[in-house]
Amino acid sequence: MDIRQLRYFLTIAQEGQITRAAKQLNMEQPPLSRQLKLMEEELGVLLFERSGKQLQLTHAGELLQNRAASLLNQFNETLTEVKEIHAGIRGMLSIGAVVSCISLLPQRIHIFRQQYPEVTFKIREGDHSLLADQLDKRNIELAVTRLPFESSFGPERYAVQPLPSDPFVAVLPSSWESVSSHTEISMRELAEYPFLSLKTDQTIGMHERVIQEFKRGELEPRVICECSSVAIIVALVAEGIGATILPESVMSSFTIPNIRTLSITSADFQSDVGIVWLRDHVLSNRAMHFLATFIE
Asked: What is the pTM of this model?
């Protein structure tokens, strides 16, 4: 017995006649009668009592009617869910992000969920090395990250969708009287303060970009700490230990008091941002829909 036969059976039970059921199903009466006979032979029971053209469900038929209706509802719901998942309007979307790009996600997720409220998210945070590993293992589909994406697998492995560049800003303790009333600062002034640098063993691109900007002005920063955590660096700044340079969007993720964010004069350098995924991996519709929120 298959789904098609269950539909035939339920239509016959609803109409009470083979003739009306056949019309409802848009088929001839003899083939429908044969299908009912095959069902009863397979089950070894009568499903209907015959009284002329009228059909009355037997006790076995009533049981099958109740169960068949439930099975067909589940089947139809499953088909709908499968189609919705394929269309990208259900299911789970796993994405990754470096800490300095986390601030780019909330607004995009909010926009996405207004259109696709049934899609759930799994978000993984890590440096380039970890995100590359998660992409390779198919644990995430997309990674929002600073560019270039530093991976041992090589750049040719990834497709990249660039996003608008993010200007660097200076982050200093508000307790420092020398900057308490300033709205901007020069690289030369920054070089006079103890400096905190964002750097990990695997990802050094941002660190080198900042150091390069100092050297472009023939300056040497007084680096007193290299740290892999944005949150720790911001906390150290708030404590008055040193100054740092971070992408502007990063600071929207923190509400820590006792820090000042200043624009940098005498320098015009940006942090490149993008979304990466495996070049040989066909993105799910969910991922494509989410990617579109950054492009539109």
From this structure: 0.66
